[in-house]
Write the structure tokens for this entry.
Amino acid sequence: MEIVREEMKLLAEVDQPGSLIDNYVTQLSFVLSRKAAGLVSLQARLARFQHRLKEQEILSRKRVPR
């Protein structure tokens, strides 16, 4: 959520007369890089979770009912 606030702040700043577009582009590029890194991390976590779900499913099939 912090990244969204940061983007909104950048947009508000660049919308002002006399704002420096170069500065906006540089800062936005940094923000987008952070977002991309966050997405890669989330994808890795999701893949691990999915793998564990499959393991759990396999283990539950192997259980012998009492």
In short: Residues 2-62 form one domain. The longest helix spans residues 21-62. The chain has a mean pLDDT of 94. Residues 9 and 56 are 44 Å apart (CA to CA).
